[in-house]
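The aim of this short unit is practical: by the end, you should be able to scan a pair of folded records and say something sensible about each. We start with the first protein, listed as its amino acid sequence and then its structure tokens.
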Amino acid sequence: MPTLSAGNLIDDAFIVRNPGGMAVTVPTGYQNPLPTDHIRFYISRTYSLTNPDAPLWEGAIGTGTFTVPVADVRDISPDAVYAYYILSDEVGNVSALSAAQGLGVRFAPLPVLDPPVIPLARDETDQLIDLKDCRETGGVTIELKRVPDILGTDEVRFMWNNEEVQVLPFNTLDPLISTVPYDTIFTDYYKDGVDTETDVPVKVECILLRNTTIISRSSRDIFSNLYYPGPVNPVDPNPVNNELEAPHITSTAVNDVLEPEDYNKEATVAFDLWVDPDKPVKAGQQIFGEYAGQRFGPEFVTDGQTEVTMGLPWALINSGGLGGNKPLQYFVSDIGGVNENPSPITQVTNNALVIEMKAPEIDREYPGENIILCSDLTAAGYGAVVKIPGNTEHLLLGRKVTLRAQGYRNAAMDDLSPGTAFTSPIAHEIVGTEPADGFEMELEPYNPYIRNIPVPPPTPIPDPPGQYIGYWKIWYEVEINGTQYPSDEFTSIINLVNVVGEYCEDQ
């Protein structure tokens, strides 16, 4: 009778106790034993010299002890109940059946892995991992679904072609996710040489381990491509390659600063190209520009070209908005290529804004005569109600409007009326339908901002009396990106003093 590793129930616990395999010992005290005697060892449902099943193990008897690998133990039929052996010698003599040891086989079902999923190459039309994928937040990952009969202690060896990525326990996870380091993808892609430029096949494989035994495998075939023209970025997959020259807007008075005189004009972007005998500038390459997240171009280069100029359309400048820190960058690629070589980023300041806003208004009794009288000052205490006309282009919700005014003593408006420089103490924040409908602001108090505008009458009033008038300029400003932009100006004569020298409050 054979002697097996401890226990007459072959199950998962048996494998845990015997991770190196099933140790079997048979007695060698029979007549004329030789180490070359042949043994056929069975664990089977059938106990017979003519067992049609293949032996679980066979070979020279040696010392009488041998080991059945774990993988073969797991393949034992679940209905097997007998362990026994048959001996034969070199001349063909066959022994009788050994005594049988009864046993049971109770393995839990083994899991069968589904093919892994590579989220960045899961589409039937996109089975390629490229540089753009490597730059994604979280990088390139492999996901393995949890299938029935997985144990928490089972481990998965993730493979990228022949490179081991990680070995991770399943625990309670679903899916189990492994991140593929960029260095692994890079090393595998260029394993056949640094001149690789085409798609490289990749077998992504998951190997399920229980203890150290492989119990299931699954795989998926994809491709990788990391090639791009131009100098190699030493910090790939970083989205900036400082080995390239930065672009600049050169059509402005100061490089990379757009001023109002640049309004509604195409800008010129210029930069020098790289010099690399191993990866030269050549026909078949193209360059796209990008301003504030908007692409323009492409420009097509020729063999040995040393610099590039590109037109940046005004429409893109305008839609990129005002202010500083507008990123300008370019990208080099082969025509039809999958990867781009990204230049350094230049921050552009856009002050190219021309704002046209209608002048404010004051309702007047005699608008045709362009004069403001006391009766036109309709706010409390003879303050002025100033109407700001709607402007859906510039008076946008949330923007703030400041009302300003200045009085003068002469028609040339170069003799300031003292105490009449007005700025609204609180800016008006645009709300509701005001961008289209406009809104009102009040200019107060009457004294001094309005009352001091006319030339004051003398005392006593002469006969005939003089004309005691002033001149008034009113405008408003809207704040856009921290800069105040003024409207057109409302100008009017203002007459607040009657023929007997009385101001509005005394009439």
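Turning to the second protein, read its sequence before its tokens, just as you did above.
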Amino acid sequence: MDTILTGEGPKYQALAQHLRERIARGDLAEGAQLPPVRDLAWEAKVTPGTVARAYRILTQEGLLEATVGRGTFVAARTPRLGPPPPTEAEVDVRPVAGRLDLRSPSLPEVGQVAALGESLRRISMKIDAQWLGYVTQSGESTLRAAVVRWLSDRMLGALPPEDVVLTHGGQSAVSLVLQCVLRGDRPAVLVEDLCYPGFRYAARLARAEVFGVAMDAEGMRPDALEAACRRHMPQVLCLTPDAQNPTTARMSLERRRQIVSIAERYNLQIIEDECYTPRDHDVPTLRAIAPSRVWYVGSLSKTLSAALRFGYLLCPAGMGTAGRLAAQHAYFALSQPVASLVLDLFQSGAAQAIRTRVLEDFTSRSRMAANILGSFDIAWQPGLPFVWMTLAQGWRSSTFARRAEEAGVLLRPSDHYVMVNGHAPNAVRMALAGDVSLARLEEGLRRLAGLMSAPPDDMAV
């Protein structure tokens, strides 16, 4: 104990942090009694006032509770009452006449309309009385097995269909995980410091506090994650290791192992979001590395059709029953029309063919963007439907977005992805709109290249 309190800073803060970490690790379980003030002061070689102050801080934080005549105990993490804290409103992305909209990725039409029509016709011939009753999780076993086959090209490790939960899209899956694993009245969730806003919205609706973790070219930094774990005692870590949104960063195998090692040390559950998956699956997923703590989230929204609202959740090994029970409490199961349509698309081979053509289309678009903007600082992956561009000297992201809109192009400045108190770099994300022609996309990208080459006079250095 004495070595813990020999660093810089007030000893009461060091003692409080030491106790926080022991509570987070489970060394001090709920209901555990702490030593009397004088006993701990003697053991730690500090004054009783130091211990009393540390206890008082943790009591105010809700981690401890003190009862006169009984002592000080680790508090139970009971849910707080009342509505969740307010969140930012979703940005309503509506088409703007006369402008090229690169704010959100949109799928190219590469045969989905015809395939959906054919599937619906086949399904219509099979409608029977089963469509009149409630659907159940147990009735989805055939579709769960089809999802496993759909994911057979990914390095996921062992994946029995029993570990699969079917959801209403990727966002639904993220929310379901948070409902399953978060405990206490102030749970903490860690995200990348630039991240898809949906993570933040889902966490706040689950009453969680959300904290950003600094990144580098490979995504989340291990040293920053370690520091965040020590400071915030999080329960969940949300990551996009294959195709980070918005930066396109991809974690190496060594980085993934480092992140998992820290998660194991601090007993974190991990949400691995693969909704934007790259063409090449040549690195093991986090789920393959840590199957006992990773919840793997995906959907068909980015490769087939966002209108289907179909997603899947691969639960940690042996947790499928718990995941399906949570889904049953939330929404019983998928609607019969959606489940039947998706199963037909899988079994007919249409889904795989469409996914291949969509990735080919976005590969063409991403290579075109790299050719046009390659003289600037850009990050991209083949098949990924967006590009991240660090702005030239003299530009700020908000100013660049405004000038781009004046030039007829809408895009996302970095502050759309940053935490409320975080730092927004001078960068923008450009979605490679699949619903516009290559010629129109090329024209818009060349306008952006022209802007990059000519920063405003009042900002040039």
